[in-house]
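About this split. The held-out portion is used to measure sequence recovery: a designer receives only the structure tokens and must propose an amino acid at every position. Recovery is the fraction of positions where the proposal matches the reference. Here is one held-out target exactly as it appears in the evaluation file.
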């Protein structure tokens, strides 16, 4: 790295140069706790989360009525909770203003 590149990097770090604006994947709903995917990344993460939950349900035998005693409801609930927390962390990081309760649009 030459001296000019180092100087540009130093200026960016102290705020003299404009920073690249963060791209948000989700838009917060105006009321309550909720978000709407607005980019393909947001839709992809949401669809992937749904597919994981469906796959976990199938793997744990939740849909199998004939073999009811082999269901693993506790295991399924723990796995869903782990994936839900990861999904919520992604939503929090990629929603403008974060994931929080909202009381309507500010006037």
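Reference sequence for scoring:
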């Amino acid at each position: 790295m030459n001296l000019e590149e180092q100087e540009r990097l130093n200026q960016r770090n102290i705020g003299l140069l404009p920073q690249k604006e963060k791209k948000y994947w989700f838009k917060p709903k105006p009321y309550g706790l909720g978000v709407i995917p607005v980019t393909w990344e947001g839709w992809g993460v949401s669809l992937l989360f749904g597919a994981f939950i469906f796959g976990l349900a199938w793997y744990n035998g939740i849909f199998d009525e004939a073999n009811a005693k082999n269901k693993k409801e506790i295991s399924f609930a723990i796995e869903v909770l782990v994936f839900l927390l990861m999904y919520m962390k992604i939503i929090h990081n990629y929603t403008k203003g974060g994931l929080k309760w909202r009381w309507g649009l500010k006037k």
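Annotator remark: The chain has a mean pLDDT of 82.
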